[in-house]
Amino acid sequence: MQKGAMFKNIGRRAMQWFYDMKVGKRLMVSFGALLTLLVLVAGVGLWGLIASEHKVMTMLDTEGQLLQHANRLRANILGMRMNEKGVFFNVVKASDKATAAHKAWLEEDKGADDRLAELDKAAVDEADQAEIKRIRADLKSYREGFAKVWAMVGDGRITSGDQGLQALAPYLDTIHDLDAKVQDLAQRADKTMNEDRVSIGKTSQKVVWIVLAVAFSAICLGVLLATVVARSIRVPLMRSVDFSNAIAAGNMDVTLDIRAKDETGMLQASMARMAESIKGLLADTGQIVAAAVEGRLTFRAEAGRHQGEYRKIIEGVNETMDRIVGFLDNMPAQAMIIDNEFTVRYMNEMGAKIGGRSQKDVVGVKCYNHFKTSDCRSERCACSRAIRDGHESSRPYKFTRFLSVHRCL
What we know:
Number of helices: 12
Shape: rod-shaped
CATH topology of the largest domain: A middle domain of Talin 1
Order of helices and strands: HHHHHHHHEEHHHHEE
Helix content: over 70%
């Protein structure tokens, strides 16, 4: 269980490390992994080709050469035996033919020496080398025996074929052993070649299976990497799309779970900052609206907290409120906004001057403490009627015309 949890944790960290890569680097790592597998496939194939080629060349250079020259040596020995019979058959009837047969025997003997020299070059196994030495010794014995018989033919001691065969009889076992040894050498070489063919076939089959396994692994890894890379890009983008659609629909309560550290994470972080800027814009605009509803017409948002066009919007709203207040300040009558407790929220410049205060100082003061008229705090008070009836009220006074504007707050 602990090992399983450890491997799971390692896998989770590896995936997080992969997701944290930049998109370009992530694609490079994925393509690099696929390229590595493709190189591995090519390497395994090349290794199999080289191994098979090496075995084939070794087989041709050793067992192939042994088989070829052993068969030729056997053919030389058979030729020597045939010419030997030609010498004995023609020793009386046609001496010229016997001489020609002897000459042919010598040529086959020379060919046997050449074959033995080639066998010495091709033999790498100690057993083959020892067998070639024994063949050379038997051939030497056969050569010496036949030379003695030919000398006896030359001085007339052998005048018939039977006499020749009898004279060669002591060497027949050696000659038969020579032929058997050459045949055995050829058979061993042929057997070894067959074993090498089977080995080469197995190696080739093994290489094919390895190539297929690595190729299949490359395909699976390619599909996996393609899925992971596509998902690592698609999921954050779709979250960003949903986030931007929610913002476009006016839902500012949505949030982004920013985990990735790649370009998609950078995009999400940028969109989150954009949303925060919009929220800040809406908050300041909402404060201006709330202040206006509450009658605090002098409240202004801090435009310096915003940048670019957002700052221009706040500055535009502030300027709009300044224009509205400017119109009220330039009215040829007194205007004010109070709450239900007769506390002044706003008063234009003319109204503030009546009580001898500035517009800033009059805010928060009870209206009846500012005007101090005979109507204040009586049934005739326009402010009382406005609070009671819930509409704007105006009442002319003996010293000027006064307009009281009220909204229940």
